[in-house]
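Work Package 4 report. The design task specified in the project plan requires that, given a folded chain encoded as structure tokens, an amino acid be chosen for each position. We show below one input record used in the internal validation round.
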């Protein structure tokens, strides 16, 4: 796939993907290594990738976290997860696509209270073809952080996403100085 030239995988940084080992540090190391953008290609595993500590924070622009399909690539928010979001995006032009984010427990309220994906003070984020299951908060959160006109999610897109047995769906939080403007596009949300 030519458009994935130079991609990295979480396994390049020590991820196990057995659903038991905490893969948070490996994912964060992989994301941190992409200082000029790039793609973190998340391969299919039988039991998924467990996140049992803090959020994976995307601080560099133009990073894509991409699975091989929501049916095949699963990120699991474990019982000991302490972050506010499993994936937190704070840089422009980032994407999350083609994967599932699920709580470890099939009982939603037994899972940690945290967003699946949070876009904070960043523009043009994309979340595409993702499935959310048993998330005990919002599946996707988009927030402005200040009165600065560049601190909002203008131009962000959510497309072809599905939530099942989650506490909440989408959350948009604007800023009074910006007139609460968000300018995001949502299509095929179920």
């Amino acid at each position: 796939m030519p458009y994935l030239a130079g991609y990295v995988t979480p396994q390049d940084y020590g991820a196990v993907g057995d659903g038991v080992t905490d893969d948070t540090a490996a994912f964060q190391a992989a994301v941190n290594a992409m200082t000029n953008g790039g793609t973190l290609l998340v391969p299919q595993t039988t039991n998924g990738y467990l996140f049992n500590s803090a959020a994976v924070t995307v601080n560099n622009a133009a990073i894509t976290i991409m699975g091989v399909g929501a049916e095949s690539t699963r990120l699991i928010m474990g019982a000991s997860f302490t972050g506010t979001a499993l994936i937190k995006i704070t840089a422009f032009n980032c994407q999350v696509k083609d994967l599932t984010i699920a709580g470890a427990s099939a009982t939603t309220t037994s899972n940690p209270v945290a967003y699946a994906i949070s876009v904070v003070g960043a523009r043009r984020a994309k979340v595409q073809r993702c499935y959310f299951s048993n998330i005990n908060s919002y599946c996707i959160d988009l927030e402005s952080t200040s009165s600065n006109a560049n601190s909002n999610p203008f131009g962000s897109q959510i497309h072809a996403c599905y939530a099942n047995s989650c506490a909440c769906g989408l959350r948009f939080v604007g800023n009074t100085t910006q007139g609460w403007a968000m300018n995001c596009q949502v299509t095929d949300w179920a």
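The helical segments are 24-33. Validation will be extended to a larger panel in the next phase.
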